[in-house]
Predict the structure of Alkene reductase.
Amino acid sequence: MTTDLLQPFKLNDTIELQNRILMAPLTRCMADDNLVPTQAMVDYYARRAEAGLIISEATIIRPDAQGYPNTPGLFTSAQIQGWKKVTDAVHEQGGKMFAQLWHVGRVAHPHFFDGDVLAPSAIGVEGSVPRMRELTYITPKAATTADIKSLIADYAKAAENALEAGFDGVEIHGANGYLIDQFLHYAANERDDEYGQTPENMSRFALEVVDAVINVIGADKTGLRLSPGAYFNMSEDSRDKSVFDYLLNELNSRSLAYLHGGIFDDSMRFASLADKTTSEYLRAAYSGTLVGVGSYDFDTAKAAINANKFDLIAIGRPFIANPDYISKIKNAEEVVPYSDEMLAELI
Ligand code: FNR
Ligand code: 8K6
């Protein structure tokens, strides 16, 4: 029997999705200067409510989490109220939406806030903030144990704020070279305390964030994104797989809503993952619901799900180009190809 991606999917006892096609988290840098979602963002997300689940663009948990201009937040009451308008509009159209909780760690820039740039270790990245080339990245401060405790508490607070803002749950952004991922990779983590050096220690921050969020909103409302194939602002290290092996084994006992791979092209194979693709590696190591992503279209996603490579598909760029992506799939209409110029406005 073949799986129909357009039929409902039960994520768990509390959440049922209207189909298996998720809108991937997509940073658009369009919040107002107080990092509050705008009416244009309300309309943009509402137009995509036919997705099985919308995952919001990455949303910062506190001021020092920011590394790009006008990325929305979830730490002030104005931001919570702004997101409430978005989630109300999505719910009115019959959709569901999770907030992606974000801290960029060492790719934060003090241009955006007062205070230190925090990271696992004082190892900077080359380069500068995209589209703001004058903002060169600085060497971060290695987070103290007290900093780490406050970061964990702020992820939990942001999760609580997300529910207050009407989200159906959250996706913890543990991927793409940002804070949580920095702890998980040897290239960014040279700590010699209980957060570094061994797979168990390097997984500790990720697991403490996951457990703190679960504690506040429940595992059924908590998803996690991971990108074991290090590729963005990070270099590959053959020891990284042992960290993810440990982490995924621990996650197997957490009953998360889902685990989501983070990758732009899921046909890429990683030497550090025993030559597997992101989804192949995650499928083998993780026993819960897996979301695949990365340069899929409807047909390739359907084939992958029917081959049991993952359970749900997240679609990113095609959703930028096609607000009515799901209708087009249902009606077998042609999908408009994505191009980078489309990032200039929200359609
Ligand atoms: C992204 N991606 C991304 N990922 C994430 O976890 N949080 C984010 O905020 C963003 N932002 C973002 C912005 C833009 C403009 C792009 C193109 C991508 C990655 C995205 O979620 C997805 O993994 C990739 O786009 C691959 O999927 P598609 O586009 O091939 O379906
Ligand atoms: C100031 C105008 C802003 C216009 C939108 C910009 C979108 C920027 C996207 C940044 C993205 C982050 C995620 C990405 C990973 C890329 C990896 C190769």
Q: What stands out?
A: The CA atoms of residues 118 and 141 lie 5 Å apart.
